[in-house]
Every structure is written in C-alpha cells, then in structure tokens.
C-alpha cells in the first residue's frame, strides 16, 4: 500500500504536465536554496497568485515556516490565504476541485512535486513564456506548454506578450521591468524547488559528513589491514 501511494504521488503530477512542448530552449533558473529571502518571496507570490487554484498539499504551513525562518505569527498573517486554515494544516488550495474542473476543464494539479517532475529550468521558462492568443479560452497561450489551460495569473506583473511577424515577442503593460519579473519568477521557482525536496540541503550536508567518515574509516581499515598482514608479507 505504501509503495502504491508513493507511485501515485509521483505519477499524478507527471501525467498533468506530460503534454508540454518539445524542443523548446529552456533558460537557466540558477536557483539557490540557501537564499532564504528569495524562498520567502517565492512563498509570498505563490500564496497570493497561485494558491487560489494550485495546492502544495504535501507541505505543512508550520514546516515551511520553520525551514524558511518565518515566525508562526507571520505565517498566519502574511502567507496563509485559505480561510480557516491552521498552521499545522497541509497547504491546500482555496477552491473545490469540482468547481475548478468545471471552470478550467480539468482540476489544477498539485504543484508540490512539479519542479522535480519537470525541472527548475522548465518551470522558470514556462512562467516567462505566456503570450497573447485570442483562440485560447483565457486569451493566452504558452510556448513551453502549447494549448495551456490556465490563465496568465502573473500578467499584471509581466504584462502581455504579443507575437510579431518575425516570431519575436513584444511585452507591454506590466508593473515590473523584465529584470524585476525575472526575479519574481525565480523566487516562485525556488520555492517550488524547495517544496519538491525540503531536505535537500540537509541531505547534501549530511552526505559530506558521511563521505568524510568513510574516508577516515578507509584509512583506519587500511592501516589495520597492514598491521594484521605485516608478518604474512
């Protein structure tokens, strides 16, 4: 049963994002999980722009607060946007799945593992690649994920990109400059990279200690072997 649950947790996001575009140049996200301020900003933007539809339901508010150096009071006041949620709750979205499926054609997927499924560069590029397309239900499409079903929720920050005859894009109407928007997208991507593997930094740090121990143990074992076998050789 445990193996089945793990398989489902991994498979569902994979299926939800399986229809992405191929042969698209991906920009480097350059995520730094040691940049706690960036992760805090990413959490803030995700909660206020994305959490209405998308959950990160394999995370808990109090765990995220601890990992990102956020007090529980600040987590309650600034980052918890679901009405009635408690700091020990899972980070679920704020709309019923049935309603979301009716409005968008399919229920928006949970995004806890999206960075692990797709990769941080894909996610970073995807959030920068919406453009005007009147044929789509929400008036936008995406070069990384053609025929995307979701609206461009960050459009007020980035502006609207319009495809020119030469294939280039011109973006106008955003509150942020291109550089500022890139940072916002990098912050959100960083938060989702963290969400997909909250213990990555701890695991990597522990790995160096383990390698150090094995190196020292190898030296001791080698010297011990020489001591035991010195009379034989």
UniProtKB/TrEMBL annotation:
Matching entries from Gene3D superfamilies are given as: Cytochrome c-like domain
Per the record, the major location class is membrane
**Per its UniProt record, what InterPro entries does this chain match?**
Cyt_c-like_dom (IPR009056), Cyt_c-like_dom_sf (IPR036909), Cyt_c1 (IPR002326)
Which N-terminal stretch is annotated as signal sequence? Answer: 1-18
TM ranges are 206-224
Domain of life according to the entry: Bacteria
Q: Could you tell me where this protein is found in the cell? A: Membrane
Q: What is this protein called?
A: Cytochrome c
Q: Which UniProt keywords apply?
A: Heme, Iron, Membrane, Metal-binding, Signal, Transmembrane, Transmembrane helix
Q: Which residue numbers delimit the Cytochrome c domain?
A: 37-192
């Amino acid at each position: 049963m445990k193996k089945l649950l793990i398989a489902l947790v991994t498979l569902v996001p994979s299926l939800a994002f399986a229809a992405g575009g191929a042969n698209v140049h991906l920009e480097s996200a350059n995520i730094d999980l040691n940049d706690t301020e960036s992760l805090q900003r990413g959490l803030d933007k995700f909660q206020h722009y994305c959490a209405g539809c998308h959950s990160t339901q394999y995370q808990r508010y109090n765990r995220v607060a601890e990992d990102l150096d956020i007090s529980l009071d600040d987590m309650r006041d600034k980052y918890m946007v679901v009405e009635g949620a408690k700091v020990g709750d899972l980070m679920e979205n704020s709309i019923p799945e049935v309603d979301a499926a009716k409005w968008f054609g399919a229920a928006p997927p949970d995004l806890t593992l999206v960075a692990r499924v797709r990769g941080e560069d894909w996610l970073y590029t995807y959030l920068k690649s919406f453009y005007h397309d009147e044929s789509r239900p929400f008036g936008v499409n995406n070069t990384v994920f053609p025929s995307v079903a979701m609206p461009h929720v960050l459009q007020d920050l980035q502006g609207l990109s319009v495809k020119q005859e030469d294939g280039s894009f011109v973006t106008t109407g955003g509150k942020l400059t291109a550089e500022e928007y890139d940072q916002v997208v990098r912050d959100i991507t960083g938060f989702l990279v963290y969400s997909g593997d909250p213990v990555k930094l701890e695991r990597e740090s522990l790995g160096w200690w383990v390698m150090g121990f094995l190196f020292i143990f190898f030296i001791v074992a080698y010297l011990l072997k020489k001591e035991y076998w010195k009379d034989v050789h």
